[in-house]
Amino acid sequence: MLTITNLSKAYDVAPERRRRRSEDGPTKTARKFAVQDVSFDVKAGEMFTLLGPSGCGKTTTLRSIAGLETPNTGTIRVEDRVLYDSDNRVNVQPYDRKLGMVFQSYAIWPHLTVFKNVSFPLEVLSRKTRPNSAEIRRRAHQALEMTELSELTERPATALSGGQQQRLALARGLVINPSLVLLDEPLSNLDAKLRESMRFELKRLQHELGLTCIYVTHDQVEALTLSDRIAVMNEGRIVQVGTPKDIYERPNSRFVADFIGVTNFLEGTVTAQEGRLRKIEVAVGSLWAEAPDAAIGDHALLSLRPESVTVATEPGSQPRLNEWRGSIARRAFQGDAVDHVVRIGEMEIRSRSNPSHSYEENTEVYVSIPPQKVVVVPTEERL
Ligand SMILES: Nc1ncnc2c1ncn2[C@@H]1O[C@H](COP(=O)(O)OP(=O)(O)OP(=O)(O)O)[C@@H](O)[C@H]1O
Ligand SMILES: [Mg+2]
Fold it and tell me: What angle do CA 243, 247, 249 make, to 5 degrees?
């Protein structure tokens, strides 16, 4: 549906910095890549998320697709239409790209009614492509119905709740029947509870209408719950693409493992093997992990998700691999879960469990993790 190849976008560095530099020598135009060599495919009907920390290039990628930024290099195709091609000098104007946009910064227009907000993108189409006024009304009403705003059409847009305003922005993005919808942090202005219900709403709409969406967020939980696939970005590049489960359970680098949720990192050396299992010497002793690709002598970085780490006051009934003694250093009640930080020798390990297994500080405990839940993270040295 959408294919992006080798997209790069650089900005000149701030002029003040250049001026200062020019005092000590000849001026060179310094450039910084906001997006570097980014390629990905989005399938029809897919919710594809760009996820990464602030400044990693998500918005720049999305604005390039929308035609609001001109990339330095690369191609952007939607189905068989070329929207941008640096080699062949193709650059379709934003309003001719027929994409729906819901940007956080493009909030609703306060001086217009709900209805006018939604009909506006159709009103401003060039005469050639603009539907007649009856058709504009029909389509605006349809978009308002989809987003459950039909009762509010004549209200000034400012007299809406946060969630209603967000739905209005969505209705405005959908009214042109876009082949692709671009959403940049569309829920970030909402409070936690509303955000969560809007996520479900958005997912429902996407399924019902069969929308293809690119969703930008720096919120891992949002990305994991909403997406069919996630592309994790760091410093202008895509570092991993996969389903939420892939990304969470099989991160391909320390960066991804660390960025997606909370984890415990341990480092060690592989010292023995038995079938698919490898024994890894770490600071607290040894640990078995399912890691058929690791060889004896390899350095290994391990990620242990807190929800895979079990804490108990009794040892396992059968002798277990990966069981250590420790004591509870801290406890934090989370409502639906309880977090423990367990001290094992010099090290601290985080565990998350059902609140029925909650232990006071200094309780002596057994900590365990099944070898299948120990994730061996590829490290830069091995890549
Ligand atoms: N118009 C601009 N001029 C110069 N630098 C820019 C411009 N727009 C963005 N940048 C820089 O490009 C990089 C990527 O910015 P971008 O807005 O794409 O990040 P982002 O991933 O969307 O971050 P956030 O999560 O904070 O919205 C940043 O370092 C930013 O400072
Ligand atoms: Mg952004």
Answer: 110
pLDDT digits (tens, 9 = 90+) for 239-273: 999 999 999 999 999 999 999 989 999 999 999 99
242: tokens are 């996969």
CATH 3.20.20.150 fits 2-258, yes or no: no
Q: How many whole angstroms from 56 Cα to the centroid of ligand 1? A: 7
Beta strands in 165-276 (DSSP E): 180-184, 213-217, 229-234, 237-242, 264-274
User: What percent of the chain shows pLDDT beyond 70?
Assistant: 93
- Distance from residue 58's CA to the centre of ligand 1 (Å): 8
Cβ atoms of 76 and 83 within 8 Å: the answer is yes
Record the tokens describing residue 377, joined without a space. 């993270």
Ligand 1 contact via 58 beta carbon (within 6 Å): yes
Ligand closest to the CA atom of residue 35? 1
How does pLDDT run across 312-360, given as a tens digit for each residue?
999 887 767 899 999 999 999 999 999 999 999 889 999 999 999 999 9
Top-confidence residue, 121 or 64: 64
- pLDDT(180) > 90: yes
Beta carbon of 59 within 6 Å of any ligand 1 atom: yes
CB 90 within 8 A of CB 262: no
Q: Which residue's alpha carbon is at the smallest distance from atom 25 of ligand 1? A: 54
Give the three-state DSSP class for 187. Answer: coil
pLDDT at residue number 199 = 87
- 210's CB contacts (< 8 A; 6+ apart) are 44, 45
Ligand nearest to the CA of 11: 1
Q: Where are the domains of the chain?
A: 2-258, 264-377
Rounded CA-CA distance 43/277 in Å is 37
For residue 273, the cross-strand partners are 278
For domain 264-377, which CATH number applies: 3.40.50.720, 3.60.10.10, 2.40.50.100, 3.40.50.2300? 2.40.50.100
**pTM summary value:** 0.87
d(CA 383, CA 371): 23
Cα 212 to Cα 43, 307, 365: the distances in Å are: 7, 33, 49
Using one digit for the tens of pLDDT, what is the confidence trace for 57-72? 999 999 999 999 999 9
